[in-house]
From TrEMBL, chain A:
Entry superkingdom: Eukaryota
A cellular component annotation (GO) from this entry: integrator complex
SUPFAM superfamilies: Metallo-hydrolase/oxidoreductase (SSF56281)
InterPro entries: Beta_Casp (IPR022712), Integrator_9su (IPR027074), Metallo-B-lactamas (IPR001279), RibonucZ/Hydroxyglut_hydro (IPR036866)
Gene coding for it: LOC111488899
Keywords, in A-Z order: Cytoplasm, Nucleus
UniProt record similarity statement: Belongs to the metallo-beta-lactamase superfamily. RNA-metabolizing metallo-beta-lactamase-like family. INTS9 subfamily.
Subcellular location: Cytoplasm; Nucleus
Protein name, UniProt field: Integrator complex subunit 9 isoform X1
Domain Beta-Casp: 360-485
Predominant place of localization: cytoplasm
From TrEMBL, chain B:
Family stated for the protein in its record: Belongs to the metallo-beta-lactamase superfamily. RNA-metabolizing metallo-beta-lactamase-like family. INTS11 subfamily.
Location within or outside the cell: Nucleus
Species of origin: Cucurbita maxima (Pumpkin)
Secretion signal span: none
GO molecular function: hydrolase activity; RNA endonuclease activity
InterPro entries: Beta_Casp, INTS11-like_MBL-fold, MBL, Metallo-B-lactamas, RibonucZ/Hydroxyglut_hydro, RMMBL
Name under which the protein is recorded: Cleavage and polyadenylation specificity factor subunit 3-II isoform X1
Span of domain Metallo-beta-lactamase: 15-232
Family matches, as CDD domains: INTS11-like_MBL-fold (cd16291)
Gene3D superfamilies: 3.40.50.10890, Ribonuclease Z/Hydroxyacylglutathione hydrolase-like
Length: 692, 676
């Protein structure tokens, strides 16, 4: 088995991407889109004046911005709006993916809607023929997000006019030279060497085409790839439809753990007990990502953790499903709510560009409840090209939701509060900021949920331009985004900004208890993580991996399980060996590999006629052989051997015809002209030897 | 190992479906239904037969409910709350959501309207539902360490599922009720091909074959339209769920198309609430309904309104859906009493009504009077339309499913005895599968699969999966033959037989001579076959796991030395006189003879590869060389007639190629190159 981490990703919107070779198949985990370089582009300008203005705005920007670029040899102007590239943006795929020949990929496993966004880049390439597996919910959500991306990107296309597929102007070397060094660093890495991986946006047709290649599964459904691998998706709790994978092959059982949440308030909970397998690929980087925040108090939690480990398994399970986590999350949400209420009360609006369906749905419920509580009649808008579709979908997928939501279905209530909110006209879903219905309905202050979290695409750009100067308005951002750069086009910002981190994976102190419960033989951990948690005491072998390096994991099983069909087993002719209690039989059948299991079926073609042993061992006893021969009515005599070749015994047969049996140390040669006698002598030799 | 199948209900009848199956020691109850036709103890399955001590929790591993119809779930609250079963109960999401509605509706009819003592209370239903674990389609669920179950789409009603259960190597499927053709709102049943020991299938329409459904739907719409057009009232007695929604989609759509304004009513709040469930569970409906849900949910009926009891005698035409179906009591009976005496009105009845209900009486013959009880008699003047479509599969569908799954045994339940016997015979004679139709409380025992597990070495597996190509040259005469063969191969591979790892023989026919002479296409054709050698040796040592190894590994495993047994022969052979050729030395004469033999053997043994290594010839393990020894130990005849034209050849072979060797020797015996 070979494992290569192509990208460790970063935070929720950029899941990790790996390549795994197992049982002769190549499996890719996730295919996210790398949005990290998107902020170097300017959002769609308001009008053409802005472009011409930009030339004039060479004077230093707003004083609030102080980048330490003094050390630069050439004194560069500070980073400001004008530094951003004004062109149709390109997007990046995982750079390491370019080093692989995609036509050799057999399987792509998609763990979450976010892990799907780069997929059309792959599927539109020539020679791509892998089978893509995703859960049904992930596929539907992922498609909506891709459609939405395409729709939002269309705004750029319309503004700049469609360019042909040639390299855009901004990508030319001389243009890149002029780019602000801070932007260069964001776009091309610290050594500015990372020039590849840029792709023009895919089209709606690409998305449609891509979806045709996706095989959808449900949680717990066994998908059998090529008879050899049984692939199963299991809920991970991160997002509706997001999953972990188990891959069972004839040689190895693998569990792939992506970012998981033990108890989620929307998605079905992390089904960790189903992941008990011998090999675990641990791919939840969230605890590593947020390492800095918790570095100070890890020592405390680890000792506490160690205490817990000494307790029995039941306590372990309790520790994992500890409700403190979800309590912390709901506190975060209530805090956002209270901030939102404050803003609204002071006449400002609230803008929430968060693309997590789970968080959006929860905030929607909590904010509307808080608004009701404070008796505020403030409309909530959900603006996205797929808003209606998204809401319609959320209410028809009970199988993918957590217990509490399912309870609602069983008691006959809508699973989400937005159904009633829509009916009561407290919530409005619109496809775009300029849709006529929105313009009629528009009221301020209001609460708006809209894409895109990068603040470069979609309705958020227009609304941010409108409210950035309003000190009573509130912008809610997710942590992980470079807010400085993201907000650059909207400077000066008087608007309040709240940046918060939502739970997006397994917390550090739960990693060890989890491994303790799962009891794997082999664990692959991200390098940083294995350093953080003390793995020496574990009973399993720990391999740590880092980005771009291939890890070889030796095979554990030396033999494979084989099932023999009962009707075939009946037909064996057993031979008891002279030595010990060993029985052996020659086995002939058709081997089939189905659902990762080898099975031997009887051959239907021809029934084996009398089977004669093909392989012999042991030392023949000449006297015994003569005895056997004479019993069969074959008369012969032992020829006195020559002195030097004493290890060769020769038996001469004279009756019924002449024949010679030459017996050497490791070989017997039968020489007869007559066919039937030949066969009989063979039987005689066979009877005094071991053979099969 | 055996699978024991105890039929507690729906054996040679329809009603109270309940089958208890014991597979390799695990006991599963499939369905827990009640019989609509009885009011005494016969309405429930006789649970005491499962366990005399009535300790159901220890004897049952789980209960599986296929769908929410009362004859499949009606006895469940009684079984859990009164009989005390506490173990896991599995059903699909829609069944779990809709079952309480169904059960509560039934309980109300029983208690409130008939005034019976209740068998279970509303609390019982709620408590019972708490024990249910919802499952999704195709999800593999590990009930305990050994028992695995999986649901497949059955199409009969929303959330109906067939269930697959597996313990060890023994596997079975219980279909519940299913429909093999899609209808207005549901898709057709779908299942994977699996190796099954047992299939328990419903057989409601064991002998009926139905044609297209659309004709009968039109009939229904026409009957309803005619009735309302002439000012009549239409009563559609249905159960709250399933049929009501299907007919409603049909009518709603028709009303829209025909621009009708006549009201369609749903009798109670119940059915309206059910529609809401349908909306949330839309992913369990048919493809068409699913695809359109974002623009318009098919269960948002535009023309449907709530019905009020006071409207029963209101004038003017209308269409009313009333519960329960089969007019077994409740509101539909109340309306029926009022509407039946008018000739203008129409009653539609489902395809199947349980004996003892008014629906059943109306269907059997054309009664003009129906005795409700000894005091009440209803005058029946109205028209009666029997719905000819039903969400059950017909006999063709049953046969198709049995054929598709090809189980080792079939058990028929949920049907009428004489029809089941006919179907049983058909399955036995046409498909060659043993088939049973046990009556209630009978047990059928069948043997189950037990395959042998062995540890196999990787070398063995590799040797099995290594391609073993053989290239055969074929003559023109064989050409037709080979084509026949290839078409046959194609036929079998497209048939759904067990998947095998060995790809079938591939034929590559190449006409090599085509280039040179198109009219004379007698060139050799190349046939490529891939006959993989799947041979190994099974080693069983007491106290150790059985092992499968490759032949080459055996001796290593046993720690023994090989002792090769070969055959050898040295015989004379006659070649043409060498006078006419140049005088040659011994070696070149030998190689000339060898090449002569080589070409001779190649032409005689067209399907073998004859290799000439200069010193010797080799075909498989058979080797041949010209023997120049004075006295070879393997020489059996020393006589040579014409010494100048003859030589000896020495050959040797292994027992594997015994037949081949003797064939070659006989060729060489006949060989006389001097004649050519």
């Amino acid at each position: 088995m070979e494992f290569t981490c192509l990208s460790r990703g970063g935070f929720f919107y950029f899941p990790p991407c790996h390549m795994l070779e197992v049982c002769g198949f190549r499996i890719q985990f996730d295919c996210p889109m790398d949005f990290s370089a998107l902020p170097i582009f300017s959002p769609v300008p308001l009008d053409f004046d802005v472009i011409s203005d930009e030339e004039l705005s060479t004077h230093p920007g707003n004083g609030s911005f102080n980048l330490e670029n003094v050390s630069e040899e050439k004194i560069e102007k500070p980073l400001d709006v004008g530094s951003l590239i004004k062109a149709e943006p390109w997007y990046k795929i995982i750079k390491n993916l370019r080093l692989w020949n995609l036509s050799f990929t057999d399987i792509v496993l998609i763990s979450s809607p976010m892990g799907m966004l780069g997929l059309p880049f792959l599927t539109r390439q020539k020679g791509f023929s892998a089978k893509i597996y995703a859960t049904e919910a992930t596929a539907r959500l992922g498609k909506m997000m891709m459609d939405d991306l395409v729709a939002m990107h269309m705004e750029f296309k319309q503004f700049y006019g469609s360019e042909d597929d040639a390299t855009p102007q901004w990508m030319r070397q001389e243009e890149l030279e002029l780019l602000h060094h801070a932007l260069k660093e964001v776009a091309f890495g610290q050594d500015e060497a990372d020039l590849g991986g840029w792709m023009p946006m895919y089209s709606a047709a690409d998305v449609k085409d891509c979806m045709k290649k996706v095989e959808t599964v449900r949680y717990g459904e066994e998908a059998c790839y090529n008879g050899a691998l049984v692939i199963k998706a299991l809920s991970c709790g991160l997002e509706i439809g997001a999953c972990n994978w188990t891959i069972n092959g004839p040689k190895r059982d693998i569990a792939y753990i992506s970012s998981s949440i033990f108890s989620s308030s929307n998605a079905m909970n992390f089904d960790y007990l189903a992941l008990q397998g011998e090999t675990i690929i641990y791919s939840d980087f969230s605890s590593v990502e947020s390492m800095n925040d918790i570095l100070n108090d890890t020592s405390g939690s680890l000792t506490e953790n160690l205490m817990a480990l000494s307790r029995n398994e039941e306590t372990l399970a309790n520790l994992l499903s500890d409700p403190a986590e979800s309590v912390g999350e709901s506190e975060k949400l209530s805090f956002i709510c209270s901030c939102a209420i404050q803003s609204v009360e002071s006449g400002g609006s609230v803008l929430i560009p968060i693309n997590r369906l789970g968080v959006t749905l929860q905030l929607l419920e909590q904010i509307s409840a808080s608004l009701d509580c404070s008796n505020l009649k403030v409309p909530i808008y959900l603006i996205s090209s797929v808003a209606e579709e998204l809401l319609a979908l959320a209410n028809v997928i009970p199988e993918w939701l957590c217990k509490q939501r399912q309870e609602k279905l069983f008691s006959g209530e809508p699973m989400f509060a937005f159904v009633d909110l829509l009916k009561e006209k407290k919530l409005h879903a619109f496809p775009a900021v300029h849709s006529p219905k929105l313009l009629i309905n528009w009221q301020e202050p209001c609460v708006v949920f809209c894409p895109h979290w990068s603040l470069r695409l979609g309705p958020v750009v227009h609304l941010l331009r409108r409210w950035c100067g309003d000190p009573s308005s509130l912008l809610v951002l997710e942590k992980g985004l470079d807010a400085e750069l993201a907000l650059l086009p909207f400077r000066p910002m008087s608007m309040k900004v709240l940046q918060c981190a939502f739970l997006s994976g397994i917390k550090l102190d739960k990693v060890r208890p989890l491994l303790k419960v799962l009891q794997p033989k082999v664990v692959m951990l991200p390098e940083n993580l294995s350093r953080l948690i003390n793995t020496n005491t574990e009973s399993c072998t720990v391999f740590s991996y880092s980005e771009g390096e291939t890890l070889r994991v030796p095979n554990l099983k030396d033999s494979l399980e084989l099932e023999i069909a009962p009707d075939l087993a009946m037909s064996f002719c057993w031979r008891k060996l002279q030595q010990g209690n060993i029985d052996i039989a020659r086995l002939k059948g058709e081997l089939s590999l189905n659902c990762g299991k080898f099975k031997l079926f009887p051959e239907n073609a021809h029934v084996a006629t009398d089977q004669r042993p093909l392989i012999h061992w042991g030392q023949p006893d000449l006297k015994k052989l003569l005895n056997v021969l004479s019993k069969m009515g074959i008369e012969g005599s032992l020829q006195q051997s020559d002195a030097e070749s004493s290890n060769v015994g020769v038996i001469r047969i004279h009756d019924p015809t002449e024949a010679v049996i030459e017996i050497q140390d490791s070989r017997t040669i039968i020489s007869v002209a007559d066919k039937t006698l030949c066969a009989r002598i063979f039987d005689a030799v066979d009877s005094i030897l071991n053979g099969v | 190992m055996t699978i024991d199948c105890l039929v507690l209900g729906a054996g040679q009848e329809v009603g109270k479906s309940c089958v208890v199956v014991t597979i390799n020691g695990k006991r599963i109850m499939f369905d827990c239904g009640m019989h609509m036709g009885y009011l005494d103890h016969r309405r429930y399955p006789d649970f005491s037969r499962i366990s005399a001590s009535r300790d159901y929790n220890t004897v049952l591993s789980c209960v599986i409910i296929t769908h929410f119809h009362l004859d499949h779930i009606g006895a469940l609250p009684y079984f859990t709350e009164v009989c005390g079963y506490n173990g896991p109960i599995y059903m699909t999401f829609p069944t779990m959501a809709l079952a309480p509605l169904m059960l509560e509706d039934y309980r109300k009819v029983m208690v409130d309207r008939r005034g019976e003592a209740e068998q279970f209370s509303n609390d019982h239903i709620m408590e019972c539902m708490k024990k249910v674990i919802p499952v999704d389609l195709k999800q593999t669920i590990q009930v305990d360490e050994d028992l695995q179950i999986r649901a497949y789409y059955a199409g009969h009603v929303l959330g109906a599922a067939m269930f697959y259960a597996k313990v060890g190597d023994a596997a079975m499927v219980y279909t519940g009720d299913y429909n093999m053709t899609p209808d207005r709102h549901l898709g057709a049943a779908q299942i994977d091909r699996m190796q099954l020991d047992l299939l328990i299938t419903e057989s409601t329409y064991a002998t009926t074959i139905r044609d297209s459904k659309y004709g009968r739907e039109r009939e229904f719409l026409k009957a309803v339209h005619n009735c309302v057009a002439s000012g009549g009232k239409v009563l559609i007695p249905t159960f709250a769920l399933g049929r009501a929604q299907e007919l409603c989609i049909l009518l709603d759509d028709y009303w829209e198309r025909m621009n009708l304004k006549i009201p369609i009513y749903f009798s109670a709040g119940l059915t309206v609430q059910a529609n809401m469930y349908y909306k949330m569970l839309i992913s369990w409906t048919s493809q068409k309904v699913k695809e359109t849900y974002t623009t318009r949910n098919a269960f948002d009926f535009k023309n449907v309104q709530k019905f009020d009891r006071s409207m029963i005698d209101a004038p003017g035409p209308c269409v009313l859906f009333a519960t329960p179906g089969m007019i077994s009591g409740g509101f539909s009976l109340e309306v029926f009493k009022r509407w039946a005496p008018s000739k203008l009105n129409l009653i539609t009845l489902p395809g199947y009504c349980v004996a003892g209900t008014i629906g059943h009486k109306l269907m059997s013959g054309k009664p003009t009077k129906i005795d409700l009880d000894k005091d009440t008699q209803i005058d029946v003047q109205c028209q009666i339309h029997q719905l000819a479509f039903s969400p059950h599969t017909d006999s063709k569908g049953i046969m198709d499913l049995v054929k598709f799954l090809s189980p080792k045994h079939v058990i028929l339940v949920h049907g009428e005895k004489p029809k089941m016997v006919t179907l049983k015979e058909r399955i036995h004679s046409e498909l060659g599968i043993p088939c049973h139709d046990p009556a209630n409380n009978e047990t059928v025992s069948i043997s189950s699969t037990l395959s042998i597990k062995a540890e196999s070495s990787s070398t063995f597996i590799q040797s099995c999966s290594t391609p073993n190509f053989k290239f055969l040259k074929r003559n023109l005469n064989d050409k037709i033959n080979s084509k026949e063969l290839s078409s046959k191969e194609g036929g079998t591979s497209s048939m759904f037989t067990r998947r095998r790892s060995n790809p079938h023989v591939k034929h590559l026919n190449r006409n090599l001579d085509e280039k040179f002479d198109s009219s004379l296409s007698c060139g050799p054709e190349l046939e490529v076959s891939d006959d993989r050698v799947n041979e190994g040796i099974l080693v069983m040592e007491k106290g150790k796991k059985t092992k499968v190894v490759h032949q080459d590994e055996l001796l290593l495993l046993l720690g023994e030395q090989e002792h090769e047994v070969r055959f050898a022969n040295c015989s004379p052979i006659y070649f043409g006189s060498l006078d006419d050729t140049h005088v040659m030395d011994c070696i070149s004469r030998k190689s000339l003879w060898l090449s002569q033999l080589s070409s001779k053997l190649s032409s005689e043994l067209s399907d073998r590869n004859v290799q000439n290594f200069g010193e010797y010839l080799q075909v498989e393990s058979f080797t041949l060389s010209i023997c120049s020894k004075e006295s070879c130990p393997y020489r059996t005849t020393n006589r040579i007639e014409n010494e100048s034209a003859a030589a000896f050849y020495c050959c040797s072979w292994l027992v594997t190629d015994e037949v081949l060797a003797w064939q070659i020797i006989s060729i060489l015996e006949k060989h006389d190159l001097s004649s050519t």
